[in-house]
Amino acid sequence: MRANQLRLWFASMAYVLMAALRRLARAHTRLDKATCGTIRLTLLKIGAQVTRSVRRVRVAMAPACPYRDVFALAHARLCR
After folding, report:
1. pLDDT tens digits, 1-21
2. What global pTM score does this model have?
3. Number of domains composing the chain
4. pLDDT tens-digit series, residues 13-64
């Protein structure tokens, strides 16, 4: 029973994240009419180096990443 509850929580958190990305982050970008699968492949499944310190988490993406600007804009909009 606890495993099912945990799975439901994870699915709920994923749904809320995807709904926020669809509503806030993709407006007026190249992903304006993108589906959930496209958003997942372009914004969530990226190769990056994540460094964590005491005060901040830093995400270093490759300069050749084609959706780097969209990712930065989505991050800025979600942080507002």
Report:
1. 788 899 999 999 988 888 877
2. 0.65
3. 1
4. 988 888 877 887 777 888 888 888 888 888 778 888 899 999 999 888 888 8
Cα 75 from Cα 13, distance rounded (Å): 17
In the chain the first and final C-alpha atoms are separated, in Å, by 37
Residues in the chain: 80
**Could you give the 3-state DSSP secondary structure of residue 1?**
coil
Residue span of the structural domain in which 28 resides: 2-79
Q: How many Cβ atoms are within 10 Å of 39's Cβ, its own excluded?
A: 19
Q: Which of 39, 27, 31, 24 is nearest to 77 (CA)?
A: 24
**CB atoms near residue 77 (< 10 Å):** 16
Kindly tell me the burial class for residue 5, based on how many C-beta atoms sit within 10 Å of its own C-beta (0-12, 13-18, 19 or more).
exposed
